[in-house]
Write a structure and sequence with these properties.
24 strands; alpha+beta; single chain; four-stranded antiparallel beta sheet
Length: 402
């Protein structure tokens, strides 16, 4: 197992090197060995799998054998089931004292109305069609969606707007001088407020982009015009929109700083350095904002409407709690998705970590069948958790719905 871990670590390092714009001669040599390392890792895993199966079969009986197989193949079995955790907050509004049978009877008595399927069941019955959108000349770093449009930001410094039904490029937004790192699409009601202030159509929608050029730009979706540019004095690594009060833009920098900007006037309302490394993830949830950093820390902020400093920190959990510290650049950037008391964390490991941000307790969800899986991003809608998974051994990418 020692050699397996070393190979997995080397492959993860190579994946990170491939994200760099330019490589040194030494780094190029490492990258060139990717196929060789992947082949060796697959060979070792196959040998280990055969050895474990032999051990389970010889001298074992019935239930005992079954228990050992489950223990050997699911070494994260003590983790809380993903489906249970993903749906937990979605079910908090239901009456917890009622049994499943009682709820079912109540639904049937509701005038013969059609029973609503849970979100997970809808996804299981859904049919998907894959469309490839080609146009960027470098790595795509962020994606957002509005109606039937997809907006993508790239290290090639552009933001592109795609029409999904026809898989065509609708707009090419050029203006950043550095790679685009993050995107946000404010709610329609806040777009109307800014459109009114700029004397634009009340139906106008806006896109917010952040870049390593230290700028945040606000674009019109209809024409692709940049209507506002905010210079932040720091490379912008993440941003989110707060749909509270008159609206705020929150940006995170590569140095661990958070800055809050007024949505209408674009004036700086607050600057605070809270993380020790780059702020790689920001998410707003009602009156709360969650920030996460490459250093493995997660902070929770409360929005104070109209206050001189709009964000008030209410929790700060370091890497010793989250377990998401970076080790020799092997793990990826921290990403989070919050709902209720739970914050789901992805940090380049085969498992998803679940932080109860109120108590600091941690749980883990299995996102891959072996430690060769890498989870780089996670997101959720009520009742459903979606996580990416990259297999270091095969190079295959998947989306896991839990």
């Amino acid at each position: 197992m020692g050699e397996v871990r070393k190979l997995q670590k080397k492959l993860r390092q190579i994946e990170n090197l491939e994200l760099k714009v330019s490589l040194t001669s030494e780094e190029a040599v490492k990258v060139s060995k990717k196929a060789e390392l992947r082949s060796r890792l697959a060979e070792l895993l196959l040998q280990l799998s055969g050895l474990q199966q032999t051990q389970y079969i010889v001298g074992e009986k019935g239930d005992k054998m079954k228990r050992q197989v489950e223990s050997g193949t699911e070494h994260h079995a003590d983790h809380t089931p993903a489906v249970k955790l993903a749906r937990e907050d979605h079910q908090e509004t239901e009456d917890k004292t009622k049994s499943g049978a009682e709820r079912e009877i109540k639904e049937r008595e509701g005038g013969g109305q059609r029973q609503k399927l849970p979100d997970s069941a809808l996804w299981e019955k859904a049919k998907f069609r894959l469309r490839t959108l080609k146009g960027h000349s470098d790595i795509i770093t962020c994606v957002a969606a509005v109606d039937n449009l997809v907006i993508s930001g790239s290290r090639d410094t552009t933001v592109k707007v795609w029409h999904v039904p026809t898989a065509t490029e609708q707009r090419n937004l050029g203006g950043h001088s550095g790679g685009v790192t993050c995107l946000s699409t404010p709610p329609a009601e806040y777009c109307r407020k800014l459109a009114s202030a700029l004397h634009l159509s009340e139906k106008e929608r806006f896109i917010i982009s952040g870049s390593t050029d230290c700028c945040v730009r606000i674009w019109t979706l209809s024409s692709g015009q940049c209507v506002k540019s905010i210079y932040t004095y720091n490379a912008v690594t993440s941003l989110c929109f707060i749909a509270e009060w008159k609206g705020y833009i929150v940006t995170g920098s590569d140095a661990g700083k958070l800055q809050v900007w007024d949505w209408i006037s674009q004036e700086n309302r607050q600057s605070v350095k809270v993380h020790l490394d780059a702020v790689t993830t920001l998410q707003s949830q009602g009156p709360l904002v969650f920030s996460g950093s490459t250093d493995g820390s997660v902070c929770v902020w409360e929005v104070c409407d109209g206050a001189a400093n709009p964000l008030n920190q209410i929790q700060d959990w370091g890497s010793e709690v989250t377990g998401c510290s970076r080790i020799d650049d092997v793990t990826g950037r921290l990403r989070l998705s919050a709902r209720g008391d739970h914050t789901f964390l992805a940090n380049g490991r085969s498992t998803i970590r679940v932080l109860n941000w109120k108590t600091g307790t941690m749980r883990r969800l299995t996102n891959h069948s072996s430690t060769a899986g890498v989870t780089d991003c996670v997101n959720q809608i009520p009742g459903l958790l979606v996580a990416s998974c990259f297999d270091l051994t095969s190079g295959e990418n998947t989306l896991n719905c839990k």
